[in-house]
Specification:
By secondary structure, the chain is an alpha+beta fold. 24% of the residues lie in helices and 34% in strands. The two termini are 26 Å apart.
């Protein structure tokens, strides 16, 4: 049975120079989609990915990461927009690192693309009418 999950990987600085994601693909036949990344040699790193594959291989890949010293947390929160509160001010446009927001040409309204969202929460703090909300 196939599984697809969004997860957050926290890399200690001692493993940021190792090709761990490469091994997920090669050794465990997993597919990944990078949603957010901040990984530098000799520094702690953060990677938000969507990881997809067969359940058994997914579990083995996660165990491999844990054994390598990577901390894993589920991306268990979703950001939504309260359409009634949104004033289309555009504050979210300039701050979103995932480019989840865009202005439509015809209506000049801000669209929110939830499939791009990595739930970083920046838009929640930046929204004057508090239209952006987090749900756990």
């Amino acid at each position: 049975m196939a599984v697809s999950k969004r997860i957050v990987l926290h890399f200690p600085k001692r493993v940021t120079d190792r090709p761990l994601i490469y091994h997920l693909v090669k050794d465990y036949d997993l597919e990944f989609n990078i949603l957010k990344a901040s990984v530098n040699p000799d520094q702690e790193g953060l990677l938000v990915i969507e990881l997809t594959g067969m359940r058994e291989e997914y579990d083995r890949g996660i165990k491999f990461l844990i054994d390598a010293g990577v901390q894993i947390q589920s991306l268990s929160q979703d950001v939504t927009r309260n359409e009634e509160r949104c004033t289309n001010c555009g504050n979210c446009l300039t701050l979103c690192p995932s480019h989840c927001f865009e202005v439509t040409d015809a209506s000049r309204k801000v669209q929110f693309h939830t499939e791009k969202c990595v739930a970083c929460g920046i838009c929640i703090k930046a929204c004057p009418p508090r239209a952006m909300e987090v749900h756990f």
